[in-house]
From TrEMBL:
<dbReference type="InterPro" id="IPR036291">
    <property type="entry name" value="NAD(P)-bd_dom_sf"/>
</dbReference>
<keyword id="KW-0560">Oxidoreductase</keyword>
<dbReference type="GO" id="GO:0008206">
    <property type="term" value="P:bile acid metabolic process"/>
</dbReference>
<dbReference type="InterPro" id="IPR002347">
    <property type="entry name" value="SDR_fam"/>
</dbReference>
<dbReference type="InterPro" id="IPR050259">
    <property type="entry name" value="SDR"/>
</dbReference>
<protein>
    <submittedName>
        <fullName>3-oxoacyl-ACP reductase</fullName>
    </submittedName>
</protein>
<comment type="similarity">
    <text>Belongs to the short-chain dehydrogenases/reductases (SDR) family.</text>
</comment>
<dbReference type="Pfam" id="PF13561">
    <property type="entry name" value="adh_short_C2"/>
</dbReference>
<dbReference type="GO" id="GO:0016491">
    <property type="term" value="F:oxidoreductase activity"/>
</dbReference>
């Protein structure tokens, strides 16, 4: 299926690896021009160069700290200068630290709020002027924890749920202007973040990482962890003109692990 993304202008945050990189590659494969960012400038510039050469699209990488409103503002200005408009925006950020409620101090909460919630607020507000003329698509990457909270991830459980509320609210406010906003929630997708979480849980439970993975897979009807490319395919569709009537929704890419209706 042609997603009609050829020549569209897309911005993907936290795209030097993992889910962000996979989404960026899927968009490039469909012909979209890219502006990518990450805290690791060398890594994201390398990804941009690889995708640009592989798919024949314009792709630029730059260093941006999503906890900084000034740097997000700079990213928006770069997109305005390079593209003049933005058709697709992916709000993605690394997950906050694991920990129980009583183990986390206020500094951890404030930092996570800046990176994982306020970054989305600032990104969607900043890019709105570049979408309002022609409409656009926004996808935020959250977590299956918005449906079923994950033990030991109180920061993620709290902030990801806030993102869903924001996207739902904006889908109503911005729908008349042709801007569609959706949330994609990964389950257990094979990324560096998941290795970190499995390792932390193995340490807490005093078992091996392999035992943790085996126990987790038992709860996944498809019997395996997902691949970043599988989530990226869903995100690319939602970011494309092919998605013309879905907004304010939450999409779980979890192999069926969420059992709730």
């Amino acid at each position: 299926m042609d997603l009609y993304l050829k020549g569209k202008k897309a911005v993907v945050t936290a795209s030097s690896k993992g889910l962000g990189r996979a989404i960026a590659e899927q968009l490039a494969a469909e012909g979209a021009d890219l502006l990518l960012c990450s805290r690791d400038e060398q890594a994201v510039c390398d990804v941009a160069a690889q995708l640009g050469q592989k798919y024949g699209v314009s792709a630029t990488g730059m260093a941006v700290d999503l906890s900084s409103p000034e740097q997000i503002g700079w990213l928006v200005q770069q997109a305005a200068d390079r593209f003049g408009r933005v058709d697709a925006l992916v709000c993605n950020a690394g997950g906050p630290p694991s920990g129980s409620f009583l183990s986390l101090d206020e500094e951890a909460w404030l930092h996570a709020i800046q990176v994982n919630l306020m970054s989305v607020v600032r990104l969607v507000k900043g890019f709105h002027p570049l979408m309002k003329e022609q409409g656009g698509r926004i996808v935020t990457i959250a977590s299956s924890s918005v449906k079923v909270p994950i033990p030991g991830l109180v920061l993620s459980n709290t902030l990801r749920t806030g993102i869903v509320g924001l996207m739902k609210t904006l889908s109503v406010e911005w729908g008349p202007g042709g801007i569609l906003l959706n949330t994609v929630c990964p389950g257990r997708i094979s990324t560096d973040r998941l290795v970190e979480l499995d390792t932390a849980k193995a340490s807490r439970d005093q078992v091996s990482v392999e035992e943790i993975r085996e126990s987790m897979v038992k709860d996944i009807p498809l019997g395996r962890y997902g691949e970043p490319e599988e989530l990226a395919a869903t995100a690319a569709f939602l970011l494309s003109p092919r998605n013309s009537y879905m907004t304010g929704s939450v999409f779980y890419v979890d192999g069926g692990s969420i059992k709730a209706i």
